[in-house]
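Researcher: Next sequence.
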Amino acid sequence: MAEILTQQQIDELLGNLQSGNMDFKEIEKTTSGPKVKEYDFMSPKKFSREQLKLLDNVFDNFSRMFSLQLASMLRVACQMEILQVEEEEYREFNNALNDSVLVGVIGMYNEAKRIDGKQILVEMSRPISFSIIDRMLGGDGSGYQMERDYTDIELSLLEYLFRQMLGLLKNAWGNYIEIDHKLEMIETNSRMMQSIQPDESVAIVVIEMTIDDLKGNMNICLPASSLEEIFRIFNSKYIRLPRRDDPEVEKKRKETIMKGLKTSPLCVSAILGKTRITVKDFLSLRPGDIVALNTPVEKNEVIVNVEEIPWFSGIMGTKKKKYAVKINKTL
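Model: Next structure:
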């Protein structure tokens, strides 16, 4: 997520603009130059590029299914699109949230794979949530500019909405691993969410939601500790690591392969020579006509092809009343 400026940084920026101390040419040079991203060796990345790509695929499927679910439930056009999938520390995600939020805490379960209550957070923007509530109660979705807390009735409606996600999340993960999802709680105060350590690495999936003409984001926060077992299962199932066999075993394996290849049939042909003729000459060919080839008589050499690949050169002759080729050299 984008870095949030403090009030002091905003005041300093405006002051520089008003005083004329800001060098716009330097800013333009900095922004147009090559992008360099800092890497913190004290807190290395926990997610590989392949793992972030996996999350992108999973939640792309989820967003498509959830948009169809919302469209049928609200009877209005609904679209969802993944804007980005990135890794950051949980404190950065939490600090970017307002004090009053709507966050669904969802647990992931799979007893066979020892996945028990691994939590993910689903944060939905307030205007989108109030618009959905308004439409669920028969309105036109325009009552979303609300600067107040959610009522108990509104939270009950939103709980129903989050429960609709559970089956869709299971289906989205179903192509890779079977995971059951359970809504643990709904939190409306971002400062009360203490289940994740501030310095823990999390993957943030930002999904843009468009309901009629209203746009807002739904952010899904996936802690590294919750995905560790899932990624381990995925790697063992879909990624084959190179094996290091015993040298003797490897030698016997090669001998077995070569023994099988030695009995494979090959097509060997001897080419006396080649030539090119016109279509007119070809159509006029009759029995008794002579076609001159490009092989000189004094050279007395033919090319032996193995599966249409020139492999040897030799001399034509006969053996046991059949034409034969004596191999001279390997090409």
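Model: DSSP finds nine helices and ten strands in the chain. The longest strand covers residues 78-89.
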